[in-house]
Here is the input.
Amino acid sequence: MRALRSSVAFDGEKFVAGGATVLVEGDHIVGVEPYDFTPQADVEVATYGGTVLPGLVDAHVHLVADGVPGSLEATGTMSDDEIDAVIGRTLRQQAAGGVTTVRDLGDRRYRTLAFRDAGAPGVPRIVAAGPPFTVADGHCHYLGGAAEGPHAIRSAMAEHVERGVDVIKVMASGGMLTPGSDQLGVQFSAEDLRLVVDLGHEAGLHVLAHTHSLRGAWHAVDAGVDGLEHFTCLTEEGLRTRPTCSTPSPPPGSSSTRPSAGTAPRSRWVPSRRSCGS
Here is the structure.
């Protein structure tokens, strides 16, 4: 066991008066005590001059891109070694910002999974989706996840499950980083999108949908996804963000056995056709 002591501590809700001594055993926090707590004699104590706080979670990252404009699109032309170098760099950047867990919602050739399985010290834990499901020339097609029609979708899902992904990501609308994709419309037929969701649930995986358009959000909710990523509410008339565009609704039923991998909450806000039109 070791102890980390700081005069400034934040417990996730409030600053702890007088600071704290955090007790760590292996990779688990086993206790948070007052600053002047005296551990057992064989416990190494390190005093830290900054703020201690619970590890941060970044729930939507693409580790194959390092934030430089064009870096995500460039992944489609990179070798495995080049991609791995970027993943290592972005993991270190996340750790330097206090992030201890990331959820990667789109890589190429499943490169993040090796980093997840390695569990290297000093970098965040990874929840990985592998290549995102998309359509031909659709959003993030350069990540290699294009699959349309029952046969291709079943084959792609079987590969994702075999590779051991933690969650499924599907592009239900176009995106800003893919010129030519339909940012105001939808991707996949209703039948194909529902098949992605059903197969993911059958495998015990949550399914998260990228949706920039309001139509894409409806499309994804009708298919039974477990969470909406972005939900920018884009329409031909601009952004739709007024409160009447949403109604509270429980999440769809899911057979998922990995609740930590997805974002299915107890209740959520979903777009209302009645309030916002079509």
